Amino acid sequence: MIILALNCGSSSVKYQLYDWANKLVIAKGLVERIGIGDSFIVHEVPGKDTVREEYECHDHSAAIGLVIKTLSRGHTAVIDSMEQISAVGHRVVHGGEVFARSVLIDEEVIKTIEDVAHLAPLHNPPNLAGIKAAQKVMPNVPHVAIFDTAFHQTMPDYAYTYPVPYEWYEQYSVRRYGFHGTSHLYVSKRAAALLGKPAKECNIITMHIGNGVSHTAIKNGVSVDTSMGMTPLEGAVMGTRCGDVDPAVPLFMMQKLNIDAKAMDNLLNKKSGVLGITGRFTDRRDVISCEDSDYKNRCRLSLEVEAYRLRKYIGSYYAVLGRVDAIVFTAGVGENAGVIRQMAIENLEPMGIIVDKEKNLKTFSKHGETEISTPESRVKVYVIPTNEELVFVEDVVAILTNTYKDHTEYPYSFLK
């Protein structure tokens, strides 16, 4: 069984072709600058040179066509024909309150994704465009939707309810939803395996730190709180997103700058966070290594603000869980920025969190799953490279074989 996993962004398509029988990635890649101009594809096959080719993609349909062509024809081909693909798994960012699990896509599912698109206007439309384009090219195979928000549908009402007029929730679905669900699912299940315990017996804090950042409190194997909210703007400091701020600040600055809600939304999502503080950088490697006298102090401040917020989330989620078995760092920054990890977990020894500083600073994603806590630490601290695409594949296979219930019960193969 060969599964194609697709992750469609506003101007990109990320893909991975997976051989389920042999448990290996056949190929993966990325189409960028869709609809912008100068689009191109980067195609990787394990053991071979990476291929980069320019190809104009005016829309997602053209990009999906390019992916299919790259996988099945010419010098980049890794399969004989598209008939070898058994199913396609699609990432969908927002499922609202409707989807608490991955589902087989039909017209009703597409309509529901469209109905909740107002909750993720930057994400759901391109996700839908990718689904429709792939269905057009591959109409005779099953297509499955995997939702970022599904993992967090186990949150209790007191964790997802905002203290605003309740009618906002009833009429407009205003509540906490959470994101990065497949990443939090994967690394928490892997942490449970490393702990040698069933996931349902583990309390874990997962720290997904990339350009987007979210943290999740996982109690007895399920999400009970998460830092992102109704949108991916709430929570920790991110590359260009502000995270938690006084809600009055945007209103105050809209008056001072004489700008509308759309302009403020752009500032909070694309001009804030690490970029907002440093005035120049979003890549944490640049922030850490900055020696430019004009930016050095602001880079230092950015790191301290980010780490301070991370530490606050660890403390608050420790209080939520009562007992913590493990803390997991994942995603690009979480897996590779030992400096930020160290700053985030400093002075937490009274909570039973003790990290081997030398090992931490030498640990990167290329090292695979790594424990960076000391033997004396009551709480294990892990760096675990995430694998969201594998969750896509597993959910697709489970649905095709009619063995899937939901993420709380399904025995994922990566638990072994």
From TrEMBL:
PROSITE patterns named among the record's database cross-references: ACETATE_KINASE_1
List of residues binding Mg(2+): N7, E388
Residues where substrate binds: R91
Keyword terms: ATP-binding, Cytoplasm, Kinase, Magnesium, Metal-binding, Nucleotide-binding, Transferase
GO molecular function annotations of the record: acetate kinase activity; ATP binding; magnesium ion binding
Site residues by UniProt (Transition state stabilizer): H180, R241
GO biological process, one term: acetyl-CoA biosynthetic process
Cofactors: Mg(2+); Mn(2+)
Cofactor comment text: Mg(2+). Can also accept Mn(2+).
EC numbers for this chain: 2.7.2.1
Tagged with keyword Transit peptide: no
Active site: D148
One cellular component (GO) term of this entry: cytoplasm
Pfam family, one: Acetate_kinase
InterPro entries, per the entry: Ac/propionate_kinase, Aliphatic_acid_kin_short-chain, Aliphatic_acid_kinase_CS, ATPase_NBD
Family: Belongs to the acetokinase family.
Job description of the protein: Catalyzes the formation of acetyl phosphate from acetate and ATP. Can also catalyze the reverse reaction.
Protein name: Acetate kinase
Organism of derivation: Seleniivibrio woodruffii
